[in-house]
Amino acid sequence: MGLLDQIEYPTDLKKLDKPQLIQLADELREFIIDEVSANPGHFGASLGAVELTVALHYVYNTPYDRLIWDVGHQAYGHKILTGRKNRFHTNRKLGGISGFPNRSESEYDAFGVGHSSTSISAALGMAVSAQLRKEDDRHVIAVIGDGALTGGMAMEGLNNVGVQNANILVVLNDNDMAIDPNVGAFKEYLTDIATSRPYNKLKDEVWNMLGKFNRLGPTAQRLIQKVDNSIKSLLMKQSNFFEAINFRYFGPIDGHDVVHLVNVMNDLKDIPGPKLLHCITKKGKGFKQAELNAAEWHAPGKFDKNTGLKIKDDDGTPKPPKYQDVFGHTLLELARQNKEIVGITPAMPAGSSLNIMMKEMPDRCFDVGIAEQHAVTFSAGLAAEQKTPFCNIYSTFMQRAYDQIVHDVALQKLPVVFCLDRGGLVGEDGATHHGAFDLAYMRSVPNMIVSAPMNETELRNLMYTAQNYKEGPFSIRYPRGRGMLIDWKQPMNDLPIGQGRKVSDGEEVAIVSIGHPGNFVQQAINHLKSEKITPAHYDIRFLRPIDEDLLEEVFNNFQKIITVEDGTIIGGLGSAVIEYAAEHGHRAQIVRLGIPDKFIEHGKPAELYRMCGFDSEGIMKTVKEIVSA
Ligand SMILES: Cc1ncc(C[n+]2csc(CCOP(=O)(O)OP(=O)(O)O)c2C)c(N)n1
Ligand SMILES: CC(=O)[C@@H](O)[C@H](O)COP(=O)(O)O
Ligand SMILES: [Mg+2]
To answer: Where in this chain does the record put each Transketolase-like pyrimidine-binding domain (predicted)?
Structure first.
């Protein structure tokens, strides 16, 4: 029986001797490899955080002490050690455990997460609350990666912590990677302090002194704290960013030396106030391929754990491309013709496929770090100087930048093209990552063009049209995953802005859709033929400006209307159609299909579409109900 078999909760872990933690870390790593190779999820980050996870749960009294993971994609080890080992095979599956920490799943998940750079702010809230309640023995720890630290919120959090004197430990898990290689001046700074010899010598001396005196009792501790502080204020404050903003900085230390981590964390427990422990780790630690190519192994899909070969469900038949690749190739094609085009991504060059243009035109592409707000305003600045920025942000992460969209772009009518990838239900990442809201949040912004293609050709045409539109911002949203067309690379055309199209004629019921669910509508219509039911189908294509002629045609010819969208029915297409009817005195029965007014969990996209009732079967069912009503 291995050590991991004996552990259900951190109380079991605490029974081990320190040297046994090395073996436990190895077993935990093997467990993660076993599970994630068969049931895919985030891989490299969790492997890199194994020793940190073991040490944190060994030293701290979780869940009383609050342990907050940033992003949460590295928290598989944490889940396994906190009561979810036996359910880990359900990770990210419908009805199973979430791939991210989730407060409703476990009391050990102190803060729900999925989006980056929130941990320090949340930790500060908890630490201040502990202070106000006089819970002086409570420790609050935020574990944040070097990538997440590039996010504005992380900096806002550090800035605030530095004047609160709250009892917080920030563990900086520095592996020099985001999903792709980490970027930016701050990343360079971290590398500098990790490798600066004079600085490290000084810091080691202070650390050694502090360690020795910590064992001498409170009076000596106070003395050394004074000495330590005066040395620091003289020398270190000027040379260390974290010290300069009132953190006590420790490290860099080896984030894979679990015994040393435990010793250091035990020492840090006795030091009050804001502290930052800089740990150097390797993303993908312990799995050769993942160490060698961390970007590819961030979330690799199924693989053979013995050979390290990825297992593709590829039956050899040609497949339609991923929408992200249609975006990537099309942008490069447009940029070759139009020298004003530039590409912007906040830390998702591979996920968005902007890396296709990056390879050929590195000086016209910008990975700005995990900084969606900055990405939008940076694009606004570029547009103000007659560049044509294509700012590609996942729909869910764009939520961060709403004020920038409104205040910096739309209000000034700046022609930024927003490409919102992962619009709609994304699948296994779940509630934190579904692009449920963009249609609704973009539709309410004046001057904004809001569009969604039904297939790859339409995406290309919308991108082509958007590059020439200079009156204001233009948003194009498309889903995660593959499109519909094998032969997708056709010449591009200008589309009339604000004009939809009739996809198929019909009677009795009109279905109005936007974006890719139009294909579910077509499938439903094909199936309904055998039952002699023939709904008409309209693809609205633009949610703003909406095609009023098309809606007039619909309302003048149909009393029964179904709207279909891969987005929240509150504020999206369904709402727009109801508003139009109310404002223009049309009376009709309108049924809205889309994401209902609640957060949708994780699962396969097909399962989630079905759950929400807008897959082809759900549409058929609604048509039949409405026809027979
Ligand atoms: C607001 C936001 N933008 C983008 C992402 C996508 N994302 C998830 S993990 C990640 C990289 C995080 O890097 P780091 O914090 O260093 O963690 P590592 O994977 O290196 O352990 C990114 C960009 C996100 N989760 N949230
Ligand atoms: C943790 C995180 O936010 C990313 O890793 C995200 O899961 C990427 O999603 P895609 O797989 O859709 O690129
Ligand atoms: Mg990192």
So the answer is: 321-486
